[in-house]
Amino acid sequence: MALEHSDVLRAAHLARLGLASQDAEAYVEDLNQILAMVDQLQQVNTDGIAPLAHPLEATQRLRADEVTESNQREHFQQVAPATEQGLYLVPRVVE
Amino acid sequence: MQWEVVIGLEVHAQLATQSKIFSGSSTTYGAEPNTQASAVDLGLPGTLPVLNEQAVAMAVRFGLAVNAAVAGHSVFERKNYFYPDLPKGYQTSQMSQPIVGPGVLEILLEDGTRKSIRIHHAHLEEDAGKSLHEDFQGMTGIDLNRAGTPLLEIVSEPDLRSAKEAVAYVKAIHAIVTYLGISDGNMAEGSLRCDVNISMRPKGQEAYGTRAEIKNVNSFRFIERAIHFEVERQIDLIEDGGRVVQETRLYDPEADETRSMRSKEEANDYRYFPCPDLLPVEVDEAYIEHLRGTLPEMPAEKRARFESELGLSAYDASVLSGTREMADFFEEVKGVCGDAKQAANWVQGELSGRLNKENLDISVSPVSAAQLGGLVKRIVDETINGKAAKQVFAALWDGEGTSADEVIESRGLKQVTDSGAIEAVVDQVIADNPAQVTQYQEAEVDKRGKMIGFFVGQVMKASRGTANPQQVNKVLKDKLDSLS
């Protein structure tokens, strides 16, 4: 499978990356090399091998259901560009 | 053409944990904006999620309650999309290996028939924050208190065939999660909300039509109305030669219609992949069995027991087992008074009527189950008659007295069964109403039954409602008939 120019622009858009159309060409080439390696991996026979979700041989540790965090709103909102009445303000979202 | 509607539901139940699914922030509803949003919930760099043990236990218990296969091994994945109330740019969810596998839920329809609805799976995920679109200097306000609240998304197979079935299904889910205590089920506060997938097909056709998804419907009534509207819309569209497009729609209760949400369509490519920050979740057999031991009696079991052991009608049994609060209340009343049928009548009659009228939930009933039980007990042992009982109920509702016995005592409502006392009142009433007595005597024998009601009323009034009505009837009849 090979990527085309439009695939890269679409992936960039989905990831909200500002990618100029003329720069996309280099990424098309890089990404296609990565996919070529994936194609090579796909050749390996994996019959009877369970899909792996994580490389570590470990399972998720659970925490007790306890409230351990306190209100740090003032602290966090110091870095926010705009706030009002305790809310973070963002450019208007139109539904 | 005859059309058949095909409906599948995704119900999101907010889990009743103290803290969030991946952080130690509180999940209390209604806090000041952003006071319960920690660094993890805000998606700040360098933070890592740690899974809440209770969220896992609650999901497993739900799975056991719907006879589903609980997955010993499940995986969290990232569902990627951008929206301001999702600070990380992805929702941590489960897709290919959810914690709860296929199960089945029996629903009870209004006509008493039962139908099994298959559950495709249920998975754990985090909720997003809230966007407030009121005007804040031309901007949108974001409250992230809800971000990271644990959700159990319960996905049905497309087995539902009408709006009524869909509502019955959601009610059944509501009953299960509230019985289990894993969600408060409060639809008004968004603790239980529902996405409805709807498609139409000609009756008899096997293949499904193209479906539309109605997002975030948050009341039983809206689910029913949204489906009715959408069914009409799709039939009209198809019969006019058009085609249903696969899209997300929004139900607007004010206009009573569904509308396309085109804005969200374009980016509908979530690029799920396993979350590298979370390891696979393992639950072993012993833990699952331990949780199985914590399951309470479920709604269907309770309903069956109410019918078979307590001798209630199918209708009474289903209403009284409908919610855990209702069932617990009824069982306490029954326990105190010792008479299941009287308890059922009072809970569904006087109590439910008054609660509905005042728009109150049974959990905040001004008359407690113990008080109502004490009242019904005095009807059962004939200390008071039905008329006096209504007075006692009203008094308890208004906070007069702490128990039925206290009200009966202070208002002197104890039923008079002493025949001498009743006879004295009856004699007085006959002496005071000579005209009515004459009318009675002149009436045809078969009309007298009706006319006696007047005298009963007078006697009851004179005794302030305390005379035993059966005795009054008999004494009156004997005396009046012997006069003629």
Description:
- The complex is a heterodimer of chains A (95) and B (484).
- Chain A has helices spanning 5-14, 21-42, 73-77, and strands spanning 62-63, 83-84, 87-91.
- Chain A is flat.
- Chain A has 95 residues and is mainly alpha-helical.
- Chain A has a domain at 1-43: Histone, subunit A.
- In chain A, helix 1 packs across helix 2.
- In chain A, a hairpin with a 2-residue loop joins strand 2 (83-84) and strand 3.
- Helices cover 41% and strands 19% of the residues of chain B.
- Chain B folds into three domains: 3-288, no CATH class; 297-411, no CATH class; 419-483, Arc Repressor Mutant, subunit A (Orthogonal Bundle), CATH 1.10.10.410.
- In chain B, helix 2 (163-180) runs antiparallel to helix 3 and helix 10 (369-380) runs antiparallel to helix 11.
- The mean pLDDT of chain B is 92.
- The interface between A and B is large, with 36 and 57 residues.
Task: Give me some keywords for this one.
heterodimer; A: 95 residues; mainly alpha; Histone, subunit A; two-stranded antiparallel ribbon; 3 helices; 39% helix; B: 484 residues; alpha+beta; Arc Repressor Mutant, subunit A; eight-stranded mixed beta sheet; three-stranded antiparallel beta sheet; 16 helices; 41% helix; 19% strand
CATH C-level class of one domain in chain A: Mainly Alpha
What helical percentage do the residues of chain B reach? 40-55%
Strand content of chain B: 15-25%
Q: What best-fitting shape of chain A do the alpha-carbon axes yield?
A: flat
On the 0-100 scale, what is the average pLDDT of chain A?
91
Largest interface: A-B, 36 and 57 residues
Low-confidence stretches of chain B: none
**Shape assignment of chain B:** elongated
- Please report the number of helical segments of chain B: 16
Largest sheet of chain B: 8 strands, mixed
**Which fold does the CATH topology of one domain in chain A refer to?**
Histone, subunit A
* Order of the strands making up the biggest sheet of chain B: 6-7-10-1-11-12-13-14
Low-confidence stretches of chain A: none
State the separation between the terminal residues of chain A, measured CA to CA: 37 Å
Average pLDDT of chain B, to the nearest integer?
A: 92
Total number of strands of chain A? 3
